[in-house]
Structures are given as C-alpha cells and as structure tokens.
Amino acid sequence: MPAGGMVSCRFSRYQDPFTGREVTRLTDPRYLSHHMYFYNRMTTEDGRRILICMQREEGRQLYLLDLKSGEALQLTEGTEPDDYSGQIEAGDRAVFYVQDGTFWRQDIASGTRRRLYSPPEGWRMGAPCPSHDFRYFAFTEDEKSTFPKPKPGVFWNSFEQNCLAKPHCRIRYLDSHTGRVFTVYDTHCWLSHTQINPARPDLILFAHEGPYNRIDARLWLIEADTRQAGDGPCGKDLRCCRKQPEDLILTHEFWFPDGRHFGYVRREMSGDLQESICVMDPDTLTEEKFMDCSPYAHFICDKKQRFFVGDAQTSDLPIHLLNQDEQKRKQQERSARLLSGEMPEPGNDFIYLVDARKRQESRLVWHGTSWTAGYGNPQDSHPHPCFSEDNTKVFYTSDLFGKPAVFMVELDS
Q1: What does pTM read for this prediction?
Q2: Which terminal residue of the chain, N or C, has fewer Cβ atoms less than 10 Å from its own Cβ?
Q3: CATH of 98-410, one of 1.10.10.10, 2.130.10.10, 3.40.50.360, 1.20.1530.20
C-alpha cells in the first residue's frame, strides 16, 4: 500500500494478571510492530496519535496511529526507513525520519516531504536528535569502511567486534532552517545516542558505544561551537562525565525536560548486583544517586518530571549476553500458560512506575517479552517504555502474544 493509505488496527484489551491494570494491545501480533526509540517525541501533544512502525506486505513502514479510532495513516513507502528514527515535530505538523540514508521532514497533512540532509559517499548517519524546537539536529556519522565485516546472525554478534575496531565516527550538527551542517567531533571510536539538551541547543550528550567492559566510559558531553563552524571539527569543552570501572554498567542516559540534569541507570556487575537511578548536573558533573531500583534495561521520566517508567528484566546479564534461544523458549512457555488461563511464572519482567517525589517504584504491568533479537532488528522485542506527551499514557513493546506488538496503559488521573 502506498503512503497516504489507511490501515485499521483492532485493539485488544485485557487485565494484567499480576497488577490488575487494563492493558490495550494496539497492533496485531501477527505483524511485527513497535513504537519509536523511547526518548523520541512519538505522540502528538494531546497524546491522541502515536508514531509506530509496522511490518506488513510492503515491509517495515512508519504509520501514525489514532488511539481513538484505531486508524493508522501510512507515512512512508518503498525502501524500509530507519524504523526507530521517527519523531513528531513540536506543533504536530510534520514527522522527521531517515530513509535511503537521507534525513527527511514530511508534512503530515499533505504528505509532501523535504530532504534535509544526505551524508557524503561512504558515510552512514545515525538517528538525528532534535533541539526542543526541532530547528537543530545532532547525529553520528560512521565511515562504513572502518567497521569490520558483520558476523552472521543477529546484531549482538558484532557488538563487541564493532567496539574493538575503533571505527571512524563523528558528530554532526544540522540547522534545518538554513541547511548548514558541520562536524562537532571527529574520532576513532564507536559513537552513538547523541542528544541535544532541551534548554541549551549547543550542548550534546553522547555515548561511547559497546559492551560495558570494553568501553573506556559511556557518558560524554560536548558543545557545538556554532560561531566557529568551518571545515574542521567545531566542538568545545569535551568532557567525560564519569569514570566507568569494568564491573559497572552506565546506560540509557536521557535529558530531563528542563535540561538541568540528565539521568541514567547504574548497575553493579559484581557484589550485590544493585541497580540505581542516577542523575547528573552537566555543568559540575556531580552525580546523585536518586534511588535504588529494579534492573531496568531502559527508563525515562515524564514531561513534568513527576514519574519515571522503566522495563525490568529477570536476568542479571546485560541484554547482549542473553542466550537468545533460551529466552525465546521461556517466553513461549509463559505465553502459552497465559493464553490457556493459567498463571505464568513472571520473573521480574515488569514495567515499573516510579514516583519521583516519594522515590518509590511500583509494578505497572507485566511486559513478558523475550528480549530476543531474532526478528531482524535486535531492538524489536525490547519494551522501551515511554510516556505520551500529555503524560496520560505509557506505551511499550512486547512479543508476549506472537511477534512484537505495541501496548498501552492509561495512567490514573
């Protein structure tokens, strides 16, 4: 079906067997579906529509799903886009995404799109992250020839290999109004997760990518020096935010909406294996342990900084070290018991809601996903919980009932 067509999604509602919450499955588990990356702006301001990816007869495409009617507007066609890169522009007029290696802005009402940027020959761009007003974007660019040949199988087989190769990567900065683009940072290290501070569009948080025991440190900051932008790298005040011993995971960092701090989880891989929510001041690099928490793979706060949401995993192993076949077998057994009316053994595969004022977490729903990477993208079955822009809903992805599908839980008012 071409872009502009409509697909009807039949919602399915059920009561979570462990928390009693009503859960709505938004997409059909016969077709692979997921929402965007969890810190992307993926719903409209009123929380009524959500940007998702569905894999149907024409492959993976982006859709805008109406949460009242169940009608999904197909936005893209042709070559499969970077299916986690989509974002809805502030003001809800357009969507941004990467397709065919090119960065696009597409008007929702008319369907017309405008090319914003294409990388030079031999380079590959990562998912762009916008400033608060969606004028500026920061993204990584990789020189493809400096990456090792991928190993057969899923992405995680190359996770350590890519890190140790020290590929040629750089951070780029784009002004979408003028088309001006320049390099902020250039290095031989695998870079990822560029995020612009919501209050300071020149301040970029980024990560050294790879297994926790192979990277020097994950969390880094740099400023884009827009006044000095020229042919060479135009970044300043490069800072390593925190030292990282080999037995400590620091991961899935994100900016708080007011830009005053960024958050992340810190997991010990020795001793009592405790995980904690941490926040850091980007100016002083002072770290505060906010509270201990369950072993979240991903977590983020709402737009009012009142609640956090996180997806716990039963295993103490990082996701890239999980036995894929064993995880899938366990998930299928639990799903079969649930569908037959029996109570499955849940482990700690729950979505947690954290009250930031009380510094307490509580189980929201059981996601029951397998965490496996066998669907084509290693992220496909990750829950990636997130809030709607109006703070009334939590979305997550799970393959509990078949292929990965998108789920929604409405929060108490």
Answers
A1: 0.95
A2: C
A3: 2.130.10.10
